[in-house]
User: Fold these one by one.
Assistant:
Number 1:
Amino acid sequence: MSNPFSLKFKDRVVAVVKKIPKGKTLSYGQVATAAGRPKAARAVGTIMAGNQDKTVPCHRVILSSGKIGGYNGLRDGLSKEDLLRKEGAIR
């Protein structure tokens, strides 16, 4: 069984997340599936939590329940909820 935290998987996750357009969201599970590991939603969360690259819109990745979930980085002083609202993903 391969390591879900492999660099290759991380690169695929980042590529998927970078393609999420403004105003849209994907769940951690949807990102994991799109990155080729459908059962690695938690790994996606770990990758997002450790991301330092501000060009990766981690705030667009939410829980499968539709809840916003956690977010470690404020961008321009805005929370994850603020960013999603500003982009039109939530009201």
Number 2:
Amino acid sequence: ICDFLVFVIHQGGCAKTEEEEAASSEEDSSSVRGSGFCKWFNVRMGFGFLSMTHREGICLDSPVDVFVHQSKLHMEGFRSLKEGEAVAFTFKRCFNCGGPNHHAKECQLPPQPKKCHFCQSITHMVANCPIKAQQLSPGSQGKSTASTTGEEEDMSHTPFPPDSSD
């Protein structure tokens, strides 16, 4: 089971709070972005399945089922999904091996060397990552990093056509 956040898409954008925007700007390379639609969701039980059709913006050959619990839904009001509703989400990979579908404590591999969670290098940790620092600094010239990561956030979502119900 992956640790992930689900954002419900409304007319091509994601419904997120400022707090969620800040959290999403801090994502590193262990986070994977997916998008698709709600396959089914049981409101009474508080869980369901998503059908992931895109991973990192690339269309998948066949949809992948992803379990979702209501506690991971980020939206206004009552947290639930409707069948067919478009969603975008992020999920984390195993910090030990980088594989999907499990966390480090459930990893079948022996402990791997510690590495940077941003670029996966074993020569440094994320706090001293030159690649992360380089990505955050170009173009900022005194501006806060939140403004540059906000632009990336807008471009990263897979656009969905507007609802055709007139």
Number 3:
Amino acid sequence: GATGSGKSSTFNALTGLDLSSVGVRRPTTSWASACIWGQEGAEELLEWLGIPPRHQTMRDSMLDTGRQDEALQGVVLLDLPDHDSTEVSHHLEVDRLVVLADLLVWVLDPQKYADAAIHDRYFAPLASHRDVMVVVLNHIDTVPAEKRDAMIADVRRLLAADGLDEVPVIAISARHGEGVDELRGL
């Protein structure tokens, strides 16, 4: 997703931990980081993906006193930098990892969901990956309730123009938890 769309906040909401820094300074996320549920095969996968150990967190470590989430067992969740960052290295990291992911969760926000940068550079070219994509419209809590359905419909319209009419769209508020359980359920 774009800068400020709430990728790291969504990552933190899904993990149940404050693993990724969030803030108003942009860009905030400079490298990919991972949260892992279950160690089996994870080390090899993360090495293949090029995620260094210092950017990896085992969700089920002995320090984790949170709930055990069996549904996520075997999941490796990545938080990536902004696709539209002013830092070229961030674009390269995103480009490198999106083609390797088993499931792409694109985080959009009400201000930038229609930006050509994501539609032209990622959505349209990755239309053949439609079966492994989900679009999250974050910050839905900032949209008046009576305008939410229209905004979600507009996101769907734009995705259809990119050849992604079957891609699920989930409205969430990572900050307040709205819609996060639905996303986690995928």
